[in-house]
Design brief:
The structure is a homodimer. The first copy, chain A, is an alpha/beta fold. Chain A is about 50% helix and about 10% strand. In chain A, strands 1-8-5-4-2-3 form a six-stranded parallel β-sheet, with helices on both faces. Chains A and B meet through strand 1, helix 6 and helix 8 of A and strand 1, helix 6 and helix 8 of B.
């Protein structure tokens, strides 16, 4: 039993929550809006944010250079531009990439003298400038934690930057920004958020509170899967999914994730499979292995019962929703396992999967 | 559906959590420890805190002048002394009174030029100095919210001070400080915390997250009531009760409380009935009235189902645990109702109790 918890972001939720709370944007004189190329515009979130900034007489620039797997250098450049413009706070709008980039840019603004890769030492440096996050997808949960996953330029490698100053001051959860997302995109992001919830729930680092958030998120998403699968996604489901994604982000802030995440990275990297589906591919095996330990079985049964189902059905259903088949040869399996074998995620569950078991999991799934 | 939430305190929990996290006390050079006359010493919490301060080379003074229903003037005087001593942060140890006083003293330290009663304007003033809270009872939940209830000197009146700066920076939840509490005291504080949870859960201001915390707390406490009633209180129960109390404090931070609170104040004030028992006296009537509205019935049935019981059993059991009978005359009933009729708690539930119904509730309970 454990009640450890930290969640300093103020969460404002509901349709039109930005236009109903414009005064909260008065965090400084000048703001950098960090976003990708199109989703902030298409979703309507950019308009709402600009409207709130203008109403408060705040100058702004839009930095829309963020792409998937944001580069450290792009964030560093954003910090330089923001300082030139005198920005004293940041609004990140989008999926995980712009929100993660916003956290890094806020760190660069507050620490003008550091080299790009010194951002990873930021816990020892100055605080960040204030950050507002506005998710336009329901998957990453980045608005619920301080993590920022950045790609290192010229290296086949990502590194996570994480500082106690990198929580959002405000997170605005308005599901209307997700209304136009496609069936496929919505399903994949929902799978990502569900994986956050189940992997967090199983972690030995769980606390009573992280499990509460994980179960809340998992229940919301579980009830939406059939509709998502059929592409019949109501407004109520959009709302439930957005809150679930946030809850998953809060849960993994305490616990981190389990092995479906690193094992899935290879499928994203080498087969371009969207992240959520790539994780979900491994949930069947995740359930199978966790059921081998007494603690794992106990936890999974409790988790499934709260969802009104069984571990076996979860393990069967998620990979089916992921809709991915491939044939991979022995050498590729070895390469995959070498890539991720040092990830701490493998021991972040009651049953610790060994290297030989990693090999076996990939082979079972992808060698016929 | 609503996900609004704010909880900036970092919560550290478990046995010996202070001695295992001494470095977190390094919040300044000099500290005022705010406490009552004895519980901080008896519980061992004062020793643990002093040990952590000394390990970090932090000077401290102990201000142990806080009594039940802390006076505004006592808090103001504490602020003056703390400034003279150069204190730049505050540790509150105890039940609700010392924790509430610590919040006020922290406000006075940061705002040297204000008059005592200007503390109630503090949201418009400077921030507070950092606050650490260490509960030694499991009832108030003050460590989970920014509320500070102060008694106005020379007036038969309390006023609540509440600022966005008055959250604890750290809350240390160590149930070992509650091990020596008597059966009666433990039961009364548990009743208080349970009332927070049920009254919060029923509030129209609830969010998904506040209900999650309210249910978590209510379940923990419900499972302990039989043991509390028999005076057989295990360590596991002590731990569950401490986390439940915190959860209740977080829940009411979003919602506030319902009518058992103001109606109970009269019993505390005029019959010296401990606060938790005084609230629990009214839970039977609270359930009865809420069941009159469709929304109230729906919510109560869901709440009770999550606890594995029924609304009727809750409504029957809580007043029985409160163990209070009295005969009160018509005039006293009128005086009681006049005292509390303007409290907003009466409309903070699906069924809004009228003035005539307040009268009827007191009469039903106390005029034979």
């Amino acid at each position: 039993m454990n009640m450890n918890f930290y969640m300093p972001a103020k969460v404002i939720s509901g349709k039109d929550c930005i236009s109903q709370n414009k005064a909260l944007f008065k965090l400084g004189k000048s703001c950098m809006i960090v976003t990708g190329s199109s989703s902030a515009i298409k979703s309507g979130a950019l308009d709402d944010v600009i409207d709130a900034l203008c109403e408060n007489g705040i100058e702004y620039i839009v930095y829309d250079k963020i792409r998937e797997n944001p580069l450290l250098s792009t964030c560093y450049d954003g910090g330089v531009i923001a300082r030139e413009f005198g920005c004293d706070f940041v609004v990140g709008i989008g999926g995980g990439s712009p929100m993660d980039a916003a956290k890094a840019i806020a760190g660069f603004i507050a620490n003008p003298d550091i080299e790009p890769d010194e951002i990873f030492n930021i816990p020892a440096l100055s605080p960040s400038v204030p950050i507002i996050l506005v998710p336009t997808t329901s998957g990453t949960g980045s608005e619920g934690n301080p993590y920022s996953i950045l790609s290192l330029d010229g290296k086949d490698k990502k590194q996570t930057f994480n500082s106690p100053y990198s929580y959002a001051k405000y997170a605005f959860l308005d599901y209307k920004y997700t209304l136009s997302l496609s069936r496929n995109y919505s399903l994949s992001t929902a799978l990502d958020a569900f994986c956050h919830c189940i992997e967090s729930y199983m972690s030995p680092k769980s606390t009573d509170i992280s499990r509460m958030f994980a179960l809340y998120g998992a229940k919301n998403i579980w009830n939406c899967f059939d509709g998502l699968d059929r592409g019949e996604i109501t407004e109520d489901m959009r709302e439930a999914l957005m809150y679930a994604s946030f809850a998953g982000g809060v849960a993994i802030n305490t616990t981190g994730t389990g092995f479906p995440h690193p094992m899935g990275y290879n499928l994203t990297f080498y087969a371009d499979l969207p992240h959520g589906r790539a994780c979900a591919v491994f949930i069947g095996k995740y359930v199978e292995y966790q059921m081998k330990s007494e603690e794992g079985r106990k936890l999974l049964c409790g988790f499934a019962e709260a969802l009104g189902t069984t571990p076996e059905i979860i393990g069967e259903y998620l990979p089916r929703l992921a809709e991915f088949t491939a044939e991979i040869d022995d050498e590729t399996v070895t390469m995959f396992c070498e890539k991720v074998k040092n990830a701490r995620n493998f021991v972040n569950a009651p049953y610790k999967v060994s290297y030989d078991e990693m090999i076996k999991i990939y082979k079972d799934l992808f060698i016929k």
